[in-house]
Amino acid sequence: MSNTAMKVSFTLNGKPVQADIEPHHTVLDVLRNTFALYGARESCGQGLCGCCTVLIDGRSASGCLYLAAALDGSNVETVEHLDADGELHPLQQAFIDCGAFQCGFCTSGFLLMSKQLLAANPDPSDAEIRNYLSGNLCRCAAYPEIIQAVRLAANRMNEAKQEVS
Ligand code: FES
Ligand code: FES
């Protein structure tokens, strides 16, 4: 360990973890290099594309910019946690059903942003979905299918809630 190394403790995908980090390490560095979680990806490295999106305390953050030192005590969720119950999350299933990806490089970011959207607004219009996801870029231009998938997931989740109540 170097003189500047520090330890951070946080919750990662529901489990308490610790990591030895350097002050310049980003969340993306720690996820990939310490925990072998590769779902969040670096594309622009400048907070402009959304490929590195993770949820920190339930809010989306750019893993390429967010310093790991600030994670202490946080609750971090990555795309790997979406199917934690052994079943695909409705958003994952809807992305598959709608063919809402080609190379898939952007997909983890879109899934987590969409999860955040549906938590805040369970029945968004297409315009609201488009607006909410406007910070996520897809170089394969799968935007129409992505909007369709979020809509489908929202419908399925709302139907499931009605069946329970
Ligand atoms: S890689 Fe982080 S926003 Fe593009
Ligand atoms: S599916 Fe290729 S970048 Fe979005």
Explain what this protein looks like in three dimensions.
With about 160 residues, the chain is an alpha+beta fold. Helix content is about 35%, strand content about 15%. It has helices spanning about 25-35, 90-100, 105-120, 125-130, 145-165, and strands at about 5-10, 15-20, 55, 60, 75. Strands 2-1-5-3-4 form a 5-stranded mixed sheet, with helices on both faces. The protein starts with 5 loop residues before the first strand and ends with a helix. About 40% of the residues are buried. One FE2/S2 (inorganic) cluster binds near residues 43, 48 and 62. One FE2/S2 (inorganic) cluster binds near residues 45, 47, 48 and 62.
Quaternary: single chain
The ligands bound in this entry are:
FE2/S2 (inorganic) cluster
CATH C-level class of the largest domain is Alpha Beta
H/E element string?
EEHEEEHHHH
Output the radius of gyration.
Answer: 16 Å
* Tally of strands: 5
Roughly what is the average pLDDT, rounded to an integer? 96
CATH architecture of the largest domain: Roll
- End-to-end Cα distance, whole Å, is 54 Å
**Count of domain modules:** 2
Helix content: 25-40%
Strand order of the largest sheet: 2-1-5-3-4
Major sheet, described briefly? 5 strands, mixed
Structural class: alpha+beta
Taking pLDDT < 50 over at least 5 consecutive residues as the criterion, the unreliable ranges are: none
Report the CATH superfamily of the largest domain.
Beta-grasp domain
Question: Counting H and I runs of at least 4 residues, what is the number of helices?
Answer: 5
- Percentage beta strand: 15-25%
CATH fold annotation of the largest domain: Ubiquitin-like (UB roll)
What coarse outline follows from CA principal-axis ratios? globular
